[in-house]
Predict the structure.
Amino acid sequence: MTQEEPDVEHLHFWSFIDHAVERAERELPGIDPGAMRLVLTLHRAANMLVYDLESSVHRPRGWSWPGFRVLFAVWLAGPAEAKKVAELSGMSRAAVSALVATLERDGLIRKDRAPHDGRAVQLRLTQAGLEAITSAFRAHNAREQEWASSLTVDEQRSLTELLGKLIAHSAHFDARHRA
């Protein structure tokens, strides 16, 4: 086996980060390995957390992660236009529209005409939707607590502040997000 051909059988989800950083540094001298490690780690941790929440809390209720995000946004924002729900949930309008059709069919969301514009659609939870999202969120938050419990309260606060700083800096280079 040469240095260019890694033993991929021994790589796994987390060890791949070390391998990727080391290999990229060898292949492309001058890259920033710290930035690469940060972004790979952040991305993998977020994906792992979302997968866990979806599989342990939301799929058993018949929802996808995006479906939960729509219900969550409508629950906490109150009745809102579909375009606002898309912005708040970080999804495209088309994705929200497709999800709303399913959530409406399941009796969780109701579409009404917006009071200020008869062409716009306003989304609101049905009573069944309200009961479903509050029950689901209790389970969701219990799982969030399990994840967060590996950090002290001060570490949680520090990580939240650091992520906030990273997000605030994204405006500096006009980072794209769904709106």
The beta strands are 80-81, 109-114, 117-125. The chain is about 65% helix and 10% strand. Helices lie at 15-27, 33-58, 65-77, 82-89, 93-105, 127-148, 153-169. The two ends are 48 Å apart (CA to CA).
